[in-house]
Amino acid sequence: MDISKYKSQERLLLAVDCIIFGFGGKQMKALLIKRGFQPEKGKWSLMGGFVNKNENVDAAAARILRQLTGLKDIYMEQLHCFGDTKRDSAGRVVSIAYFALINIAEYNEQLTSDHEARWFPLDKIPTLIFDHKQMVQKAKERLQQKVANHPIGFELLPVKFTLPQLQSLYEGIYESPLDKRNFTRKILSLNILKKLAEKEKESSRKGAFYYVFDRDKYGKLNHDGIKFL
Predict the structure, then answer these.
(1) What percent of the chain has pLDDT over 70?
(2) Are 18 and 98 in contact (CB under 8 A)?
(3) pLDDT at residue 192 greater than cutoff 80
(4) Is the predicted pLDDT of residue 222 greater than 80, yes or no?
(5) Peptide bond into 39 cis (omega under 30)
(6) Topology (CATH level 3) of domain 10-147
(7) pLDDT at 45
(8) CA dist 113 to 33, 67, 84, 94, 125, Å?
(9) Which end of the chain has a smaller Cβ tally under 10 Å, C or N?
């Protein structure tokens, strides 16, 4: 096999960057870190790193996420390839972006402080290095498209949740208010929620019933897809 064509090609670096979305109960947020090396050291950045020689990009994304945050086995999806020739001032770097969904309340204690990780509301994202702001915007658009056809939004919620909490989540994703009656009717019509006898009473005197999702029906809906909202 003639591999001379391979040897004559210029080399470049392949990186992965992770847009981590979380829901704190009222707002959608993104997890950012202070970059620990040059160029742009000390500035806000997405979590990322380089792909190793004997590693596929999905494995690299999972490894980098685990190393920087301690998180594993969470929802993560490949987003887009960013390959502008001047996107990184240090050299020719192509980045494969991923977005991940986590429940802030469940995972916050695992987040390492070594990289000064901090949650930012999506409408208050600070200036980011390179093209990371573009990555966040594209991830927001993909998430909005995705939740319209698949119930992946539940990845951002605790095991049991109320319908007002669920509505707040979708309003956070779409950055727009939703009609309560229509939202409730649509969600319940999907028949993927189980109503519990327990109520959440911190938000109101009357309280709101907790729900959990039916894993089997949820899994089928997520696989087949549906017009969710």
Answers:
(1) 92
(2) yes
(3) yes
(4) no
(5) yes
(6) Nucleoside Triphosphate Pyrophosphohydrolase (3.90.79)
(7) 96
(8) 9, 12, 31, 28, 19
(9) N
Domain ranges of the chain: 10-147, 152-224
Q: How far apart are the first and last CA of the chain?
A: 53
pLDDT tens digit string along 86-120?
999 888 999 999 999 988 877 766 676 777 889 99
Q: pTM of this prediction?
A: 0.88
Q: How many CB atoms within 10 Å of residue 207?
A: 13
**In the numeric block, which tokens belong to residue 98?**
């991923």
Output the six-digit token pair for 129: 């290095």
Mean predicted lDDT score pLDDT of the chain: 87
Q: What is the pLDDT of residue 154?
A: 77
Identify the CA nearest to 82 among candidates 10, 21, 15: 15
Q: Looking at the DSSP assignment, which residues form a beta bridge with residue 161? A: 211
Question: What radius of gyration, in Å, describes the C-alpha atoms of the chain?
Answer: 20
| 113: its two tokens | 């402080």
Q: CATH assignment of 152-224, given 1.10.10.10, 3.30.360.10, 3.50.50.60, 2.60.40.1220?
A: 1.10.10.10
What is the residue whose two structure tokens read 């909202």? 229
Residue 14, strand partner residues: 94
Using DSSP bridges, classify how beta strands 75-82 and 47-50 pair: parallel, antiparallel or unpaired. Answer: unpaired
| Residues whose CB is less than 8 angstroms from the CB of residue 29 and which lie 6 or more positions away in sequence, other chains included | 21, 22, 23, 104, 119, 120, 121, 122
Q: Is 62 exposed, middle or buried (0-12, 13-18, 19+ CB in 10 A)?
A: buried
Q: Would you put residue 175 in left (φ > 0), alpha (ψ -120 to 50) or beta?
A: left
